[in-house]
Write a structure and sequence with these properties.
- By secondary structure, this protein is an alpha/beta fold.
- It contains 15 helices and 14 strands.
- The chain has an eight-stranded mixed beta sheet with strand order 5-4-3-2-1-6-8-7, with helices on both faces. It has a six-stranded mixed beta sheet with strand order 11-10-9-12-14-13, sandwiched between helices.
- The two termini are 24 Å apart.
């Protein structure tokens, strides 16, 4: 490996975790990647993957600064520290302030902090990562890439709620969406893979993981999505309920005496797959339990497919025609049965999958619709948010 190559460090900071990757500016080569888990706890650890090798370090009670410092030491040992030309950060909510990647300045930091109320579980952690990286790499350009930016092209009819306007103008209550970096990347890959017209295409992208959303992408621009002001709206997720009648929430509060914070915890952390089954938020565990006859697991999967198909069908109404449906994310890329069940529910739109192709598509790029179909093309395309962040960072710093 060349030690004089330029590299971009990509950071994705959560409240108790930190994902990282070291990529070439074009995003075509990943030098290393890894995950820090259980930050702030006595069992905190750092796992670094380099080629086919994995190395794990203990980091007892370490926080974001300690994790980045350890990563810095590792880069120093490899002789790569001085090759890092910039740091790119995933930031979940940029509100209406940020509709594209930006160089981090004190004003940008203040803007991200001001938006913490829109993403209280994410933006503060993203900001911690930016500040920790600033200390570790003083003077190095840092770039913030926002999950919500891709959806800033939605028209007001898609992003406004039917409530009095002052709640939007005074408090920013509107739909912002999420997973924008993933939706953008996958839609671009779909145009190339399926030989679609870059200036005239209509694609539904289903990003399905512990968090999940669908986006309607028309000619490279997001025109609608399922997540709302927060990541709680839309699909059934690992721990989130997705769509629920607000009246049901009021009823629960009146019947149980639960307060706002308790309801927030219920809907964000104790609902979805884990809430319905009592087993796990992991789709694989729920799927296996359903196969063994667990009734609540079977119901949870049924609700998940029902909601996914209903929202895919609804988002298709943004288009004059539907060219393609793309599955991505940890579940979307590795769950043939869910893809097949969803396609069956969308048969009235001409959506269909070939059983053999679908079953063979596990974590790889593959067209799974039948050969010669007259309906929309269906494909699996693995997402790569780190690559998009690296490219955006490289473009911004020139």
């Amino acid at each position: 490996m060349a030690h004089d190559a330029q590299r971009i460090l990509v950071l994705n900071c959560g409240s108790s975790s930190l994902k990282f990757a070291l990529l070439s500016p074009e995003g075509t080569q990943t030098w290393l990647s890894g995950l820090v888990e259980c930050l702030g706890m006595d069992n905190a650890s750092v796992t670094i993957k380099q080629g086919n090798e994995r190395t794990t370090f203990g980091l007892p009670n370490g926080g974001h600064e300690e994790a980045i410092a350890l990563l810095l030491d590792h880069l120093e040992a490899l002789g790569w520290r001085d090759s890092v030309i910039a740091v790119g950060h995933r930031v979940v909510n940029g509100g209406e302030l940020f509709d594209r990647p930006v160089l981090v300045t004190p004003e940008v930091e203040a803007g991200i902090e001001a938006l913490c109320s829109l993403a209280p579980l994410h933006n503060p952690s993203n900001l911690m990562g930016i500040r920790a990286a600033g200390k570790a790499f003083p003077g190095l350009p840092q770039v913030a890439v926002f999950d919500t930016a891709f959806h800033q092209t939605m028209p007001p009819s898609a992003y406004r709620y039917a409530i009095p306007p002052r709640f939007y103008t005074e408090y920013g209550v509107r739909r912002y969406g999420a997973h924008g970096t993933s939706h953008d990347y996958v839609a671009r890959q779909a145009v190339e893979l399926l030989n679609l017209d870059p200036e005239d295409h209509h694609i539904l992208v289903a990003h399905l993981g512990n968090g999940a959303s669908v986006a309607a992408v028309q000619n490279g621009r997001s025109v609608d999505t399922t997540m709302g002001m927060t990541p709680l709206e839309g699909l059934v997720m690992g721990t989130r309920s997705g769509d629920i009648d607000p009246g049901a929430i009021f009823h629960i509060a009146r019947q149980t005496g639960m307060g706002i914070d308790e309801l927030d915890d219920l809907l964000n952390k104790k609902s979805g797959l884990i809430g319905m089954t009592g087993l796990s938020s992991d789709y694989r565990t729920v799927r296996d339990a359903a196969a063994e006859g667990h009734e609540q697991a079977q119901l949870a999967l049924g609700v998940t497919v029902h909601r996914l198909a209903r929202l895919l069908g609804g988002l298709a109404t943004n288009f004059p025609r539907l060219d393609a449906v793309i599955f991505t994310g940890g579940i979307g890329e590795n769950a043939p049965t869910l893809r097949a069940a969803t396609a069956k529910r969308l048969a009235l739109l001409g959506v269909a999958v070939d059983a053999e192709r679908n079953n063979a598509a596990m974590g790889c790029t593959r067209v799974i619709s039948p050969e010669g179909t007259n309906g929309p093309l269906v494909a699996v395309i693995p997402t790569n948010e780190e690559l998009m962040i690296a490219r955006s960072t490289a473009e911004l710093i020139g």
